[in-house]
Design goal:
Length: 495
């Protein structure tokens, strides 16, 4: 077999394959026999018709097509091996010529990563987090709002009230907002700036039109920087009453006896959150630093897969809130290809980061224990309640284990990289040792529980059966003493 390669794009080659004539001839004779099995030739038993007869009746093209179906996979794998390449995914063979048989296929190659020297990199650690009383006061205010009481009032809306309203918004000729039943708190946090003020004074049944501009950095890119013409019709005005800042608020907020206890807990929660955010910023800086000094090449197929994954996740989120993909496309006024173009930059960034971290994990010889994957799967399955076992089986069959493994690997790699670049390696080693010890203890506990359950089953199986009670010993129905209903030990059925 002759195989030649031609680079046609980044990490993509075209293979030209010329199989050995003897191999082709054997495959065609096997194909002819197969054809005559399911399409018998008159006068011959199935599969016994001479090759020339099959060729005369069905044609050489039919036989060749059948032969290629039978040997395509082996030809492809042999060609890839001979060319010394590592495919990213299976290429499709196409016939270039029939006599002699020449095949071609475009093969995307596995991404290639050349890591930069992480030893030369440094990331400044984030400063230690400290919590002020003012920050705790802000958390208290959020709690007060969360536990506010509302009363419908027959007056114009005031700052601090809550309104129920229908809201539409257009930017030029395009409708960008359509909320027929929105709940709006008239406070300083509303965007765009001036929205609360524009609605102040409106009573139930009244409508007001006005124009405002969203900030350029607004979270929704469909609204960011746009001047929007609003039309708002109020249906209900509610007066908001906030609870007092006292021990009763602490009891409302959770298992706290006093306001002091609540403030202490909020301080700890806020500190933990801010510390996690700080570590996340360190991790982002460390990853970007390594990506910046590394070289990454990948085929377009890898990028397209990444784009598809992003859109699939978006589609899943929409389905969870009862929104169809088709309705979403109509709402944003875009085709699926336009959406793919929109997310391409984000997809490229995600792909490159993951490839770099995967290569870093390989270089650092980072390992993922099967128990770690199993723990993640168990946690996911537990959320399905009674369907947990079914969920576990589904994850195992769907290839989700590989996805979980890859995610754990990149997370662990990012953690290791961040520790190295911030000078926290000793701290990480202590954390990993503690986690490993906890995992071992958990595994031992699970093993002991399983062993105990097995022993119980064995003991039950070996227990002697109860001898039947003699018929004479059973009292007559009218002599029997009514017994208390016996408990089955089962929980009431749940809806």
């Amino acid at each position: 077999m002759k195989v030649s390669t031609e680079t046609v794009a980044t990490r993509e080659v075209t293979l030209t394959i010329e199989p050995d004539p003897d191999r082709v001839q054997r495959a065609m004779r096997d194909a002819a026999r197969q054809i005559s099995r399911y399409r018998p030739v008159p006068g011959f038993r199935p599969g016994r018709a001479p090759y020339a007869m099959v060729e005369r009746i069905f044609g050489r093209d039919v036989i060749l097509n059948e032969a290629l179906n039978g040997m395509a996979d082996s030809l492809y794998h042999d060609a890839v091996k001979e060319a010394g390449i590592e495919p990213y995914e299976h290429g499709q063979l196409e016939v270039e010529s029939q006599d002699p048989l020449v095949l071609k296929t475009n093969v995307p190659l596995a991404p290639e990563v050349t890591l930069g020297d992480a030893e030369e990199l440094h990331v400044d650690p984030e400063p230690e987090v400290s919590i002020s009383e003012e920050q705790i006061d802000e958390e208290i205010e959020r709690l007060r709002r969360a536990h506010a009481e509302y009363e419908t009032v027959e007056r114009g809306a005031e700052h601090g009230d809550q309104i129920l309203a229908s809201i539409t918004g257009t930017a030029g000729e395009e409708e960008v907002i359509n909320r027929p039943s929105a709940t709006v708190d008239l406070d300083d946090e509303l965007q765009p700036a001036g929205f609360a003020e524009a609605l102040t004074g409106l009573s139930a049944g009244e409508t007001r039109s006005f124009s405002l501009t969203y900030p350029d950095d607004y979270d929704d890119e469909n609204l960011a920087g746009k001047n929007v013409d609003f039309e708002v019709t109020v249906s209900t005005v509610r007066k908001r009453t906030l609870p007092e800042v006292d021990d009763d608020l602490a009891k409302m907020a959770g298992d706290y006896d006093t306001l002091v206890d609540l403030r202490e807990a909020l301080g700890e929660q806020l500190k933990t959150r801010l510390q996690n955010e700080a570590r996340s910023r360190e991790s982002e800086a460390a990853i970007e630093a390594l990506v910046g000094v590394s070289q990454v090449e990948y085929p377009d197929a890898a990028l397209q897969h990444e784009i598809s994954d992003i859109l699939a996740a978006q589609r899943s989120r929409l389905q969870q809130i009862g929104f169809t993909w088709e309705n979403y496309l109509r709402m944003v006024g875009k085709t699926e290809q336009e959406l793919r173009d929109d997310v391409q930059e984000d997809a490229e960034r995600r792909l490159v980061r993951r490839l770099v971290l995967t290569e870093y994990a390989r270089a650092e010889e980072i390992k993922i224990a099967s128990a770690e994957v199993a723990n993640v799967m168990s946690s996911i399955a537990a959320s399905y309640g009674e369907r947990a076992e079914e969920a576990m089986q589904s994850m195992a069959n769907s290839g989700m284990m590989l996805s979980i493994y890859s995610d754990l690997m990149t997370r662990k790699a990012a953690r290791r990289l961040t520790a190295k670049l911030t000078g926290r390696e000793e701290e990480l080693e202590a954390e990993e040792a503690a986690e490993a010890a906890a995992a071992e203890a958990e595994a031992a506990e699970a093993e002991a529980a399983e062993a105990a359950a097995s022993e119980d089953v064995a003991a039950e199986a070996e227990a002697p059966a109860e001898e039947p009670v003699a018929k004479e010993a059973v009292p007559e129905a009218d002599e029997a003493t009514p017994a208390e209903p016996e408990s089955t030990g089962e929980e009431p059925a749940q809806d």
